[in-house]
Amino acid sequence: MNWLVDFFGNRANWSGSGGIPIRLLEHVEFSLAALLLAMVIAIPLGLLIGHTRRGAVLVVVTANAARALPTLGLVVLIVLLAGVGTTWPVLLPLVALAIPPILVNTYEGIRGVDEDLRDAAYGMGLRGRQVLLRVLVPVALPLILLGLRIAAIQVVATATVAAYVGLGGLGRYIIDGLATKDFPSTIGGAVLVAALALVVQLAFSLLQRVLVSPGVSRRARVR
Amino acid sequence: MGDTEPLVRWDWIGRNWPGIQQLLTDHIVMALVPVVLGLVIALPLGLASARWRVLYQPTVGLMNVVYSLPSLAVFIVLIPITGLAERTTVIIPLTFYSLAVLIPAVVDGLGAVPDSVRQSAVAMGFGPMRRLLQVDLPIAVPVVLAGLRVATVSSISLVSVGALIGRGGLGYLFIDGWQRQFYTPIVVGIVLVVALAVLADGLIVLAQRLLTPWARARRTA
What we know:
By secondary structure, chain A is mainly α. Chain A has helices at 2-9, 20-52, 56-68, 71-82, 91-111, 115-123, 128-161, 171-179, 183-211, 214-217.
């Protein structure tokens, strides 16, 4: 506990390029960039595969492979291959790790939509794309958001680990603290990262409440 | 290191094999102990949450929170209690991650038992304990094992993060390779971790086939 007081009570930790606000911003910026890139790739792909049902094997394989890949090894290898000292290659493993959960959940969400519902939409005269965007996506939204949440949490955690290869962000306190045996900094960094992860989790619960239609989440009472 | 450095230097692997084997053993222990512990703890907790539904929401909510905590952060917070570079520091958080996957799996598995089957068992004179062991749990096996596969594979890959606090099994190879700007250990580490995960996953699938002979009988019938 004294370590936490040491870390958070230290004025120097709150200002400058190594200060908590800047580090937090770096962490959030980087995670957000990785998540957005992963979304741009994985959501359309998941929608396409879920809607056309072609290439489902691809989804299952990437999902399993991604879980087995050690994040630290991937980060270290990619950065070493791309050249040490540059920051943007670190985005690559982060994006790669964020894609599978988004892809799988988008696909599963679309695929899992009730057949009757799909038929009814076609029966009402909607075309393929309209069925996808007006019926399938809203119904699948809880699962798509779940995939995004898992990916976001994964990215925040991996961005922490990536401090080891020189990425800024909150992981710096942990890695630098370990290297210099500065335990207040290490523990403080760990607490900040954990707090950020919890905030992400909370943000997605709120997002789910706002975005998912009451009819889908069964919050609306059917009379 | 020039541009000609190959991804894998096979002679390095040969020379360092005993050390790699040691890391592999350490890795297996740190990855599997949490999963076994997790299963042993998740069964009673899952049974309790399946029986008393009020417990379910809080348990799952808590597990969701636990699961979202980055592993490195949890390792660090445990260091003052369990020590730097100790197996326990890695095993304890991984046990909680396993629990976070396995408790919902047990609850969902038990929830998958059809009411008609449960009632038939009661009608045939099964007591609560015998019904649980001979009817409910066997039917829950596929869902529980699906959870076990996820828990095992994630546990195997997560152990390597422990290398940052000095105890990560094969993860040490990543640190070693990074510090010497040398690809081979990193590639060897990644390949071995993935191979281990695939092997463990295959073994669980095999166990599922042995534990649910009726699934195969139904497919051939």
